[in-house]
Amino acid sequence: MKPFEYLEHTADIKFRAYGQTPEQMLENAAIALFGSMTDLSKVQVKETWKTELKSPDLEQLAYSWLSEIVFLFETESAVFSTFKVNLRQKDGWMLEAEIGGERLDLKRHAFDNEVKAVTLHEFQVKKNDMWCVQVVLDV
Amino acid sequence: MLNKVDDNIYEVPIGYRPGMRVPGRIFVSPQLLEMVEPGTVDQVANVATLSGIVKYSMAMPDAHLGYGFPIGGVAAFREDTGVISPGGVGFDINCGVRLLRSDLESSVVQPLISTLIDNLFEAVPSGLGSTGRLHASDQQLTEAFVSGAKWAVDEGYGAKDDLVHCEENGNMKGADPSQVSIKARKRGRPQLGTIGSGNHFLEIQRVEEIFDEEKAKRFGLFKGQITVMIHCGSRGAGHQICTDHLEVLSRAVHKYCIDIPDKQLACAPIGTPEANNYFGAMVCAANYAWANRHIIAHWTREVFDKYFGNPKLDLVYDVAHNVAKIEEHDVDGQRMKLYVHRKGATRAFGPSRPEVPEVYRDTGQPVLIPGSMGTPSYVLCGTDKALDLTFGSACHGAGRIMSRSKAIKTFAGRDIKASLSREGIVVRANNPKMLAEEAPQVYKPSTEVVDVVHNLGIATKVAKLIPLGVSKG
After folding, report:
1. Cystine design at B287: which of A3, B148, B240, B319 (Cβ 3.0–4.6 Å)?
2. Residue ranges of the domains in chain B?
3. How confident is the model over B194-215, as pLDDT tens digits?
4. Beta strands in B14-158 (DSSP E)
5. Could you tell me the fold of the domain covering A4-138?
6. What's chain A's average pLDDT?
7. Any CB–CB contact under 8 A between B198 and chain A?
8. CATH topology classification for B3-401+443-472
9. pTM, whole model, 2 decimals?
10. Nearest by CB: B404 against A64, A123, A139
11. Do A113 and B437 touch (CB under 8 A)?
């Protein structure tokens, strides 16, 4: 199973991320998002960030999760390379995540893109053989 | 599938996709039509399915694939049955362009271009994650959301006279800061007075050609003159405001049983709390963007003052190209209050509109079309014909034809810089790698796009500006 793939889009970045479980799908989507901005192999895990999110359904949760990463990137001025997601289902979906990375250092971290936001354009969570989320990022 | 209606006008007929309430209209030349992706036409058709849309779902000559609305999309909705959608505005709310004119001839400035660009690069923070020199308090941030450029002037940035040369006087009414989340405030607070990254820029230009002497005179432009163009928006504040309200409106489509063909077209009926809250927050972001460009203009003036005494740098105009507005228009002979969404489209009002500032009432408003890096920008003039054809709208740029990923594979940032330098254009950028994705070749030829606008008569050409130096994110 490939963890994710980028698809062609004229103005923005489109990808599909996969997983055997919804957790793995969300982790891979986070890597696809952050990996579209910078080379993750240059990111050292020196700090961790924790986040908790809640949503009525998995699709909205996936949107909130990816948007949260964009928010943390900008407000913490940090780059991330590891994402550990735990999900619970109780009156909707609860997500607890631990994100590993370090503070942004433009001398070491080069950027291909800056993701402004996660769009809902063609946004979709599906389960066939495995879980899949399709995302278009506004860059 | 598309029907030719007239020169440069193609119709997407009702029935192109199910549920269309009005036809689509794409304003392009036959050459530009070939560059319009099928997905863009689908997006025009998708917008045509939204409730309360009047006349046409439109796409300007720079139309290309976006999310929700196409880029270059214009659509207007009736107050009684229509909707408001953040997909018709975009994440970078009030991304826009401001043009400053100097009283300097290019021969005086040209030898100093490198120095000026270096100074501007230092004076105006740009690039990814850039934070401003200005550390706004929570109270100041609220005032920027409510009063926009007026707040900036009160704080000592720019002159009062500038305000009448901004769309909405740089201060759109209807802001509701209570609908701006803590997250949006947290992103917005440190970024007031920053350019950002991507296609945003601060550029020193020379007026290369005048097409309309009389209007150029009214806009204070002459051949060989130095101008400065600022292209940026509402930064993280706007992005977060859109993200937050998109989540709310996605739920609202279920609540109000609205059938939408694309989730990014999430919307709510005009007058509902969800629609009102988004609109109030959107206005906050729009005002933030006007304050942002005002502060940047002030710092630009400081740099020019250092080298040239007081070269004026008066504001020609400041236009928004990602915003929704409440405007009155004639629809089938009836005057109607409409919610006009322009996404990657510039307002291009002619002389008859009260929104046009007094100083431009006899000509129409200046319409500013930024070039991409290294390509010319244009100043046009709004017309009354545009009111009839496009709800008074024109294009906002050239429009991409090559994806960012392909651009990065095709071009190297270093080579782009070198080739621009051979043309005498000085570029300073935080991230040379990102120059590749903004290479001039990834955009449609801006001349072709502007000529279509001119030939349609939705705005007429006044002047062509060429870049001398660019500061980028």
Report:
1. B148
2. 3-401+443-472
3. 998 888 999 999 999 999 999 9
4. 24-26, 57-67, 69-78, 83-84, 96-105
5. Archease, Possible Chaperone; Chain: A; domain 1 (3.55.10)
6. 95
7. yes
8. tRNA-splicing ligase RtcB (3.90.1860)
9. 0.96
10. A139
11. yes
